[in-house]
């Protein structure tokens, strides 16, 4: 791990970087407006709140703009950032303190870079049909369903039948760990946390959403514009994830992708293939950022 790889920083004048920061803030505000309004009313949404409840980054944290490594910000306003974690003052400007970040987060950088590099090296495995969500409620009974505010679209018995008629092949540990006990042995793969880098592949919807997780986990190293690109993709993937789920989300104007039918399977694969390509593009961009501080 080499914290001094970035040797020729780009200096941004006040007008340039403040415009970027304002544009980012407006983008975040638009993307989080519905969630912030619901939170103010004490309401929840089983699809759209996931990125905030599961990944844990708040709209206010997301709104804070970071330029990434090798960028110096001029002006008195930039000096306010000197107190931010992992920033420093250099020649009257403020920049990310790469050495401090690497000292604190070097192991995370190495892990994420290795995981992303391994993922993009593999072909996308298509045709899982989002059955991980079905496995999470297999034989669960009324009290075991995760999203209890919404009913099962087919009911419990028919939902169980869909699981039993299909081969489940989930490669993502953070989905697999939520399977019901009865569903665990039905998965053709038995992923573990230790095997994550060996199994992760770009066709997995949850791995695609996780590009947002890795961007936020490595803040402020990752430029905020890239983080928001990951957020936008994760939001779209989450929608498909729940459209293909066993839940009846008609009360939230979410149309199902009926993966228990041939037409639904075709529609799912088409979108899964698109998301695999888009998530790989983001992975390459994240790897490029990590390369600036890696050996």
Automatic annotation (TrEMBL):
Taxonomy, superkingdom: Bacteria
Name of the protein this chain belongs to: 3-methyladenine DNA glycosylase
Organism: Knoellia flava
